[in-house]
């Protein structure tokens, strides 16, 4: 019999994971947030202590709880609010460039021309 980890490696989409763990889900939520859900699940897996010493049944139960929590984060919130990916961590999803930086860049381009 394959281990839980081997079976998880065969899964590729958020829907696959949710189905594997027997979690019901709203397709609209997953369609918009699939990568965010998986990234959050990954974050939860790596910040939760004590997972490595569990037997298969208990590991399945804990992984299922963490995936349900990751999914629920995006039912109750949005990708922009949850800030899972760096683009959302930057000031409201926008990066700023100081005017002095632009001015210096323009000077160096004029000097090179």
TrEMBL record:
Signal is among the record's keywords: no
Source superkingdom: Bacteria
Record keywords: Nitrogen fixation
TM spans (from-to): none
Function of the protein: May protect the nitrogenase Fe-Mo protein from oxidative damage.
Family in the record: Belongs to the NifW family.
Subunit structure, as described in the record: Homotrimer; associates with NifD.
Protein name: Nitrogenase-stabilizing/protective protein NifW
Native source species: Sphaerotilus uruguayifluvii
């Amino acid at each position: 019999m394959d281990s839980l980890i081997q079976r998880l490696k065969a899964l590729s989409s958020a829907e696959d994971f949710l189905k594997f763990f027997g979690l019901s889900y709203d397709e609209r939520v997953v369609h918009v947030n699939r990568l965010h859900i998986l990234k959050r699940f990954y974050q939860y897996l790596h910040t939760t202590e004590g997972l490595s010493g569990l037997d298969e049944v208990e590991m399945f139960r804990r992984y299922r709880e963490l995936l349900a929590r990751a999914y629920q984060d995006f039912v109750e919130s949005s990708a922009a609010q949850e800030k899972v990916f760096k683009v959302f961590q930057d000031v409201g999803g926008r990066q700023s460039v100081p005017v002095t930086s632009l001015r210096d860049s323009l000077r160096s381009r004029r000097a090179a021309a």
